[in-house]
Fold ATP-dependent zinc metalloprotease FtsH.
Amino acid sequence: SRAKLFDEKTDVKVTFKDVAGLEGAKEEVQEIVEFLKNPEKYTNLGGKIPKGALLVGPPGTGKTLLAKAVAGEAKVPFFSLSGSDFVEMFVGVGASRVRDLFKQAKDKSPAIIFIDEIDAVGRARGKNNMSGSNDERENTLNQLLTEMDGFGTNTNVIVLAATNRADVLDKALMRAGRFDRQIYVDLPDIRERKEIFEVHLAPLKKVEGLDTDFLAKQTPGFSGADIANVCNEAALIAARNNKTAVDKQDFLDAVDRIVGGLEKKNKIVT
Ligand code: ATP
């Protein structure tokens, strides 16, 4: 199947209240929202608006969600693509795709560009290059660097990129004027898990008085994505048992299923 060019969303509905926990990260991206909404306020004083920020953290912790919320809060279009899409591309396509993406975003600025799994394109150059198959990836990375360097101070496009492997990234990406800010998006602690449960329980038909402290306690090590899964799975289990509301036992059964799935996944990986 052909990889998609990139995705463009003009009316993003996600806002900060959809992102539970992550107070520090939200505070940091709040500034990016301000830049997008009111760039003159900053440039009038001679300041340079940052071009990019790297969202760093384990899978499923809400990096994509947070990037979308920036676009939703600032009411700007959200252009996104995944670094792993480039891996399958023919020679020359990756770089021209990056060019197209930046051109479209500039035409519609202010805008957010979001690059998920940037490590797939942004791995340090000149390593693991025995097959020569990394040339295309390097071309794509070089084009990305070129585009970011080419931004004028008034371009008003901010590039957010996500990775769970900041350590493998080419240092050139982190240089001043590129992804020179790193924002950590960690696994939720118990209090944050409670908040994430509250977000994902809201749309469910459930029994009164479900104890979210208890659910948070039952789910150490779970990511936000895992918790969203638990809530959905609990609703499916309740329906399968012909219940009219999701109850505590359904959540416990869902937690067991997700734990089982996580264990299996870890076994395959290691
Ligand atoms: P990956 O590294 O795997 O791409 P990610 O960090 O980008 O993961 P998201 O795709 O943003 O994670 O999260 C997946 C889903 O998990 C979200 O759409 C949301 O439903 C839920 N989720 C994750 N984190 C949170 C959070 N902090 N608050 C509310 N929901 C969350």
